[in-house]
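Standup, Tuesday
Yesterday: got the pipeline producing structure tokens again.
Today: sanity-check two examples.
Blockers: none.

Example 1:
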Amino acid sequence: MSTDGLKAQVVFATITGNNEAVADNLVEILTDKGLQVTKSEISQTEPEELADYDVAFLVPYTYDEGSLPEEGLDYFDDLADVDLPELTYGIAGSGDTFYEEYYCMALDKFDKQIQKTGAKRAGELVRINLYPSPKDKERLTALVDAVLKEAQ
């Protein structure tokens, strides 16, 4: 799988640091595969920037009973207005299984929102309980592989 010249953006939101760890894992995996990677915090990022990338990974956390990250609400709202038919994306993020039916619900909401852009999702949503484990890194690697395969 040739990744020469492919550019990736990893957009994350975090309070506890768990999701930044998920984002850092993705950056490491992508970098190891030879991609140019930009990591950015969601409140410091505009959805239009995604048009400059071949692949993207959204890494939102779920707050309380299924709420989106407050600092990511503008990004979420603006995302629906961007046209990204060339983009392939994956979604991963941490949550807390304590919240049962609300566990990682923001991932589903971001998935529905970015689909409005015409972007193509590859791989399954990767739901991580709290801090990413070595097993979670394997799942993130599988997600990256699926996204890169689809982007070829």
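Example 2:
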Amino acid sequence: MNERVTFPDIEQTLVAYLATELAAMSDTATVVSRVQDPHPTRMVRVTRNDRKARVDVEDREGRRSAHLILDRPRVVLECTDDAGGAATLAALVRSILSAAAPGYLGTVWCDQVEDAGMENDTDPATAAPRYTLVADLIVRGTVLA
């Protein structure tokens, strides 16, 4: 019988981790998984989106690792700043994520963070400046007893 493994909620894990890291750098950005109304003036929105195409060889060739204890979430981070600092915020978030692995994101072990890119993604409805980061993570699950 195979082991039962549970994986962390990567959105909430990253919300807490990035909020802590940004606060330690005296940055005022609010980190969320859902945008509040009214939205914060400086914000990072974290969403998991595994439907976006991956860039690694396992997915290109249709192979998956036999290590079932690993989860491979793709996360999208939208950085906005009404004062025009969205690009600076995105660069800061990118540097925090790039330095995070291998290591703990709060209580979750992260083996790897693969930066899949950053783009200027101005909000079409409001013309507000927004930069989007995409990253692939490899995180460890927990075997259920």
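Quick observation on example 2: The chain has a mean pLDDT of 87. The radius of gyration is 16 Å.
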